[in-house]
Amino acid sequence: MALQFQDLPIPLVAGQNAGSDAALISPPEFLKVTNGEFADRGNIRVVDGLSGLAITTMTGETAPDDTNPTLRRLMTHKDELLLETYKGIFRQQVGGSFALAMSSSNQKRVNARAMRMGVSSIADAQGTSAPDWDRSSRPVAGTLGVDAAQIGDYTCLVWAEVFGTGGTSRTQVSWQIRHTTSDTLVGRGRIRDGVGSVLEPRVVAFGGQFRIFAISGGDIGYLFIDPASTQNVNEALTKYTALGTYQFMDVALGPTDFCISATTTAPAVQSFVFTQAAPTVLVGAPAVAVAGASTPVANFYIAGGGGGVGG
Questions:
Q1: How far is CA 151 from CA 178, 206, 208, in A?
Q2: Separation in Å, CA 10 to CA 7, 13, 14, 41, 114
Q3: Which of 30, 58, 130, 228 shows the greatest Cβ crowding within 10 Å of its Cβ?
């Protein structure tokens, strides 16, 4: 006999309430947002974890902001923490803030600038935020001359490097001043010549200032910087000479004077003696002729050695 289908009634006396829990507030209001931020209703975005980082900026620079957040990231290189932004790569200093290492206008980021002794850094803070080098030019920082001096809690580093675009590259001198203990960058800049190159940088310290000397367009010049006033510093040397024949130079300090010695195309070695009390007033200028082509010259002070400065 075939079975017949039959409906069986099942009484439902309980079920699940799909409504909101009475403990919750009514949408669209909310009590807490995790890992998000908002400026107005209906516009919640993920928190930018880099926006609160301290940035050390110099004259002519602007700190990274929340523009183009997708182009901002933290990176590590050896023992360093780097911040990459659409404005360039910033290097974390010992004090915690970030200083510009390479601006975005510098296209060859693999060629970093100004290695510092004792630090496994790919780049120290660059001279300025301007597009100092790109394309086929390599900065070769330090190989064309480097020097350093210290005043109290401040250290000044100077170096020569190539800058320019295409086939017009020349050399400039970049400088930076850091706090000796905290390593904080307090100032940086560059020295350029409008028609030639700047080479052979030397820096000494006396009278509470860093005294930078270099050969600019074949002539010897100077730039004096107070470590307490490192912004808007002149980008050109004041010239001691106007011959355009100097090639290599060095500087030596005596107790109260200093001497600049330089080779010329004569060929000869020319010296210039100044007192520290009047560093722009020439005291003497002895010269010695040499038989062959001029080469790099070294200058040093010898206590009791005649006039007090030896070359």
A1: 11, 8, 7
A2: 9, 10, 12, 48, 85
A3: 58
Contact between residue 138 and residue 116 where contact means Cβ atoms under 8 Å apart: no
Q: pLDDT tens digits for 74-90?
A: 777 666 777 877 777 78
Phi, psi of 226 (to 5 degrees): -85, 120
Counting DSSP H helices and E strands in the chain, the numbers are: 0, 20
State whether residue 202 is helix, strand or coil: strand
| Residue the block writes with tokens 């001691």 | 240
Is the Cα torsion angle 207, 208, 209, 211 positive or negative in sign? positive
Task: Report the predicted TM-score, pTM, of the whole model to 2 decimal places.
Answer: 0.66
Please state, in angstroms and rounded to a whole number, the distance separating the CA atoms of residues 32 and 18: 23
Rounded-to-10 torsion of CA 209, 191, 126, 139: -130
CA 156 from chain center: how many Å? 12
* Residue ranges of E strands in the chain: 36-38, 44-46, 55-56, 73-77, 80-85, 88-92, 98-103, 146-151, 154-163, 170-179, 185-191, 198-206, 209-216, 219-225, 238-239, 246-253, 257-264, 268-275, 282-284, 287-289
- DSSP assignment of 261-281 equals EEEETTTEEEEEEEESSSTTS
Are 120 and 104 in contact, with CB atoms under 8 Å apart? no
pLDDT one-digit tens code per residue, 224-283: 999 988 877 888 999 999 988 999 999 999 999 999 999 998 888 999 999 999 999 999
